[in-house]
Amino acid sequence: MERTDSAELVALVTRLGIWLDEKRFDEARTIFTEDAAADTAGGSVRGVDALAAQARRSHPADVATQHFITNPRIEVDGDRATIDANLLVVFAAPTGQRILGERYRLEAARTAGGWRISRVAASPIWEFSPA
To answer: How far is it, in rounded angstroms, from Cα 82 to Cα 71?
Structure first.
């Protein structure tokens, strides 16, 4: 069965959530382009190694996370794509929980290894920290 670009991009977004939750930061090149940029609550970075380092800082080993990335709206233009999606992420730290609702704007590029994310922009919508 041949996968369409949309199906491959949905799979890429799914891998992004797993990459963060399973803290597979050494596998960043399977998700991102070399020159990937990110603008998130953790800061703004450019380059796959800087992006992985930022993700590592924002998702410490002792904090379990669960990323729900839903309702992707995908637009493909040749070897480029944009993906708008909802993000709900739960941080379950030993000291307490935190839940964030954000909107993802992802840009992706087709590479020799398949689709990779070239830009991540996360816009916070709401946050909840249960008492």
So the answer is: 13
